[in-house]
Amino acid sequence: MEKVQGSVLLCFLFSFQAGVRGQQVEQSPSALRLQEGTSSTLRCNFSTTMNSVQWLSQNAEGGLISLFFLASGTKQEGRLKATANPKERYSTLHVSTSQLEDSGTYLCAGRHSAPRGPAACLQTAAAPAATICTSGRTHTAAFEQLWVS
């Protein structure tokens, strides 16, 4: 897993959805509480076809860690498995045999195949402490809180 450097600040507990220039992504469920040892799947639905999807998590220090980057198909690392289906416009992240350290904020981000606009930053009233800075190709992101107890 690779730590992502950059200007993304996440300071909230519940779901946040963002769309830049009309592109939307929705992650479900918006918040999830699991009992340790159980499994669950997080899902992102995109309003348009994406060229690739990236799944990230936020560590205790607030930094982002890249979990998966994929265009289509399935990738697995340990107890985590990501799938991307660009034709059906969705991606999933499956957590098997959840552990306490899986608790946290998860992010899925979609990337278009061609630039659709200049770089932009977005802040919303729903999460005023969250700032998303995007390149001309990355337009959508969704966040979800997962608790394991």
TrEMBL record:
<keyword id="KW-1015">Disulfide bond</keyword>
<dbReference type="GO" id="GO:0042101">
    <property type="term" value="C:T cell receptor complex"/>
</dbReference>
<feature type="domain" description="Ig-like">
    <location>
        <begin position="23"/>
        <end position="113"/>
    </location>
</feature>
<keyword id="KW-1064">Adaptive immunity</keyword>
<dbReference type="InterPro" id="IPR013106">
    <property type="entry name" value="Ig_V-set"/>
</dbReference>
<dbReference type="InterPro" id="IPR051896">
    <property type="entry name" value="TCR_alpha_variable"/>
</dbReference>
<keyword id="KW-0732">Signal</keyword>
<comment type="subunit">
    <text>Alpha-beta TR is a heterodimer composed of an alpha and beta chain; disulfide-linked. The alpha-beta TR is associated with the transmembrane signaling CD3 coreceptor proteins to form the TR-CD3 (TcR or TCR). The assembly of alpha-beta TR heterodimers with CD3 occurs in the endoplasmic reticulum where a single alpha-beta TR heterodimer associates with one CD3D-CD3E heterodimer, one CD3G-CD3E heterodimer and one CD247 homodimer forming a stable octameric structure. CD3D-CD3E and CD3G-CD3E heterodimers preferentially associate with TR alpha and TR beta chains, respectively.</text>
</comment>
<keyword id="KW-0472">Membrane</keyword>
<dbReference type="InterPro" id="IPR013783">
    <property type="entry name" value="Ig-like_fold"/>
</dbReference>
<protein>
    <recommendedName>
        <fullName>Ig-like domain-containing protein</fullName>
    </recommendedName>
</protein>
<keyword id="KW-0325">Glycoprotein</keyword>
<dbReference type="GO" id="GO:0002250">
    <property type="term" value="P:adaptive immune response"/>
</dbReference>
<keyword id="KW-0391">Immunity</keyword>
<keyword id="KW-1279">T cell receptor</keyword>
<dbReference type="InterPro" id="IPR036179">
    <property type="entry name" value="Ig-like_dom_sf"/>
</dbReference>
<keyword id="KW-1003">Cell membrane</keyword>
<dbReference type="Pfam" id="PF07686">
    <property type="entry name" value="V-set"/>
</dbReference>
<feature type="signal peptide">
    <location>
        <begin position="1"/>
        <end position="22"/>
    </location>
</feature>
<dbReference type="InterPro" id="IPR007110">
    <property type="entry name" value="Ig-like_dom"/>
</dbReference>
